[in-house]
Specification:
Family: Belongs to the complex I subunit 2 family.
Organism: Phrynocephalus putjatai
Keywords: Electron transport, Membrane, Mitochondrion, Mitochondrion inner membrane, NAD, Respiratory chain, Translocase, Transmembrane, Transmembrane helix, Transport, Ubiquinone
Subcellular location: Mitochondrion inner membrane
InterPro entries: Complex_I_Subunit_2 (IPR050175), NADH_UbQ_OxRdtase_chain2 (IPR003917), ND/Mrp_TM (IPR001750)
Largest sheet: none
Shape: globular
Radius of gyration: 18 Å
Length: 248
């Protein structure tokens, strides 16, 4: 619904349905951590949705137009860009992402880091011409720094994956300022690389770095694959993950 709409209200309805649908999925494990993660996710997404409505309403009030491509007001574009960054979990509004991932299962973490980013990235792609490049660039660089530094010293694999996601979003947002099509390719490659990592973690029920090191004895292929995928995600030359970085 969000990806195919040309009207801000329809896009907003799509995002809202998406949020309400994933809440029961996050809270499925009957633990306090899962409930906490659900509330955190709900609050951040609700704030982002409110900012989105504020932005599109202000724009409609100024221009008399609800069309997504007609977001001409400077104030509106800035608020909209921030709300979309909040929805996908890019710095400086990334704080919810590691916490939510840590509180839920690996399948749900996979959903949040891949599928849940598609709608906001699509909307950002649609309005990328109107957003000030300086805003995109600074948010992108900040996300890269936060993603890179946050992953250091982490023993929890889900948090590490969350910071990796923030880092990759940084790349996507920064490239969005220069070449939106390339940004779409970047996020697509990221999703293709992240999915098998999460699926392998789920199969071997890895939670911490310690699990990853002990899996070596039981399933060598899995550990090796995860190691190579991690290198690919970090963008090392012979791997696929290097391609969007090189093109950028």
């Amino acid at each position: 619904l969000t990806m195919s709409s040309s009207n801000w209200l329809m896009a907003w309805i799509g995002l809202e349905l998406n949020m309400l649908a994933i809440l029961p999925i996050i809270s499925k494990p009957k633990t306090t951590r899962a409930s906490e993660a659900t509330i955190k996710y709900f609050l951040t997404q609700a704030i982002a949705s409110a900012m989105m409505l504020l932005s599109s309403t202000t724009n409609a009030w100024q221009t008399g137009n609800w069309d997504i491509l007609e977001l001409k007001n400077k104030f509106s574009t800035t608020i909209m860009a921030l709300s979309l960054m909040m929805k996908m979990g890019a710095a400086p509004v990334h704080f919810w992402l590691p916490e939510v991932l840590q509180g839920t299962t690996l399948q749900t973490a996979l959903l949040i880091t891949t599928w849940q980013k598609l709608a906001p990235v699509t909307l950002m792609y649609m309005i990328s011409n109107n957003i000030q490049p300086a805003l995109l660039m600074s948010a992108g660089v900040l996300s890269m720094v936060v993603g890179g530094l946050g992953g250091i010293n982490q023993t929890q694999l889900r948090k590490t994956m969350a910071y990796s996601s923030i880092n990759n979003l940084g790349w996507t947002i920064m490239i969005m300022a220069l070449s939106p099509n390339l940004a779409i390719m970047n996020i697509t490659i990221y999703i293709i690389m992240t999915t098998p990592v999460f699926l392998m973690m789920k199969n071997t029920s890895m939670k911490t770095l310690q699990n990853l090191t002990t899996t070596w004895t039981t399933s060598t292929a899995t550990t090796l694959s995860i190691a190579l995928l991690m290198l690919s995600t970090s963008g090392l030359p012979p791997f696929t993950g290097f391609m969007p970085k090189m093109l950028a």
